[in-house]
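2 proteins. here.
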Amino acid sequence: MVGALLAFLLLTAQVPQVVNLPKAEAEAQIQSVGFQFQEIGEASDTVGPGRVIRTDPQASSRKRKGTTVSVVASAGRNPVAIPNVNGLPAAVAAFQLQGKGLVVSQVAQASDTVAAGNIVSTDPLANTLVAPGSAVKLNVSSGLAGKTAPPTSGPTASNPRRRWSGPLLHGPGRGRL
């Protein structure tokens, strides 16, 4: 009986506690007690990149020496897909992006097709995967490029009897005057 217990203790080892250690340090500890090391990467919002999230088999379990211990190491935070905010008011777009943990800046861009104050495009483009905390530039329409906009309705402000005589604008959401 004592011989069997002694053989068990000599042929087995306890899986070391390596959670939250750097991957290299975990590998050294696991191999030092006679186990094989296998790394598996996994995204984590709570454990820093390159640190151990968990092991399989679990720490403190006793296993035969030579057994492979799989170490799940953090590959960093989950990437974020930039939402399509084109055409939205700048404040709404910024709110959506900031809600995803992105850093927002705005640049004015003339546009014949997007109303002033609304988003023309983003950089990086919509649906691009980026790390949380990444910078996203909002290209915000400053209005019509090189054209004078007609009054929104009725006669001009300076002369109530005069009709608009500027260029006619056509396109989505713009009728003939």
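next one coming up
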Amino acid sequence: MTGPSPTELERAEALAERVLHRDVPRRRMLVIVNPYATTVSNRLKNLVVYALQSRYDVEAVDTQAKLHATELCREAADEGYEVVVAFGGDGTVNEAANGLIGTDVPLTCLPADPRMSSAAHSGSRATWSTRPSTCSRWRTTSSRAASTSAA
């Protein structure tokens, strides 16, 4: 299967130029990538960064060792990044959240694997607050309780 033709890409870029407001300052975003996550590849990382660059000033950094994501998030908060994305598995998300606790920098997660999170395996729905300072742990709701209360 081949990718989009240059003409299709040019048309998509022209549309993006018309739709997006270039005069609006873009927020600084740090994408923390776990290159060792099973489904993360350079190609996928590049696609993610390319997509985010239309709205954010993006920098992507690969983790090098255990607790590196925590260190990177602390540095990101100190350097004025406005949002951090954890792109990897549960470990990457956990480390990133720990690095942002006590800051106002929001964390969002981009799961490298759709089966991510032990909560998903236990039959619970897991949600992560957008403010790491208010959520040092997963908040889980039983699927059974959620479906009963929604009825």
